[in-house]
């Protein structure tokens, strides 16, 4: 039985990972469960799965069964991967990076759902991954699709990686309409069910810009080899174009069940519940990304190209801006404005350490809060 340390067990991906483990009883168990702040849900999962370790990042109290050890403070990173076979990183945002780096330092197989680990810390993470011969497996559906089309070979050669984007809820909105859309409108994703932060990032297309950067690191691609197209039906999860003109796509319903399960079971493919009925699909559409309407897409790619601390600055400002938008403190177009302001006021530095990224993250958040709340 393989042991999984699940970081971010009470979020959207974490809950679906628990569902996969329940369904594949006997194949997997949890060695550790970590949640950012949902003590009640964490406690319920601990009573169900009896992990060796559990941690609540907020530091609040929570109830534990006998046999599960509570980790807190610096002990979380120090011991959370003890004895695990797979580190499943599903924590949200910049917070996931510290776990990904630690798991890579320990040489654990990593199932990565936290894209910020590569957007912000791509250089550090990939260096550590190479040094320790870590098997880094994507859970992000687009990158899982690419990985499958590349026959699980992240070093395989290709001509182009083509990521698909649903286009989010505002694909057909005008610039004028975007000024007055609310958080409630933005949270209505047409095809995928996800957490609030990523759903807003899908609406601004910041998420797709992130995924371009993520693909660059995962597959050693040049930015010129990565393209995104809008595909509103979310059936084709991404495509790989090869030198001979062949295009291989991975298709399926828009559900995270397969990407999560495959990251755990590969190279084996075990049964999943939902199977695509091709005859009932009807037309599938593909079109260019409307970049002028969604400036966050290009901002993320440009920050990724510039590298250094800039992707972390972009992400920190973006996380603050999305929280402010969810609270109704700023408008939808102001998310991009907040990010652009942080990028233009904070200087790029070469990345030497994780601490430096942490500092860049804090600086970006302060800059964003100052712009949003005037403090
Ligand atoms: Mg994705």
Q: Could you walk me through the main structural features you see in this protein, from its secondary elements to its overall organization?
A:
The chain has 375 residues and is an alpha/beta fold. The protein folds into three domains: 2-138, Rossmann fold, CATH 3.40.50.720; 140-301, no CATH class; 307-375, Rna Polymerase Sigma Factor, Chain: A, CATH 1.10.1740. The chain contains 15 helices and twelve strands. The chain has helices spanning 12-23, 39-49, 75-79, 95-105, 116-131, 141-149, 175-178, 183-186, 196-204, 206-219, 257-265, 295-306, 310-326, 333-345, 354-373; strands at residues 2-7, 28-35, 53-56, 69-70, 86-89, 109-112, 136-138, 160-165, 226-230, 236-241, 247-251, 287-288. Strands 4-3-2-1-5-6-7 form a seven-stranded parallel β-sheet, with helices on both faces. A five-stranded mixed β-sheet has the order 11-10-8-9-12, with helices on one face. Helix 10 runs parallel beside helix 12, helix 12 (295-306) packs antiparallel against helix 13 and helix 13 runs antiparallel to helix 14. The longest helix is centred in the C-terminal third of the chain and has 20 residues, at 354-373. The radius of gyration is 20 Å and the shape is globular. It starts with a strand and ends with a helix. The mean pLDDT is 96. It binds magnesium ion (MG).
Write the layout of secondary structure elements.
Elements: E1 2-7, H1 12-23, E2 28-35, H2 39-49, E3 53-56, E4 69-70, H3 75-79, E5 86-89, H4 95-105, E6 109-112, H5 116-131, E7 136-138, H6 141-149, E8 160-165, H7 175-178, H8 183-186, H9 196-204, H10 206-219, E9 226-230, E10 236-241, E11 247-251, H11 257-265, E12 287-288, H12 295-306, H13 310-326, H14 333-345, H15 354-373
Helix pairs in contact: 4-5, 5-10, 5-13, 9-13, 10-12, 12-13, 12-14, 13-14, 13-15, 14-15
The structure holds magnesium ion.
Magnesium ion binds next to helix 6.
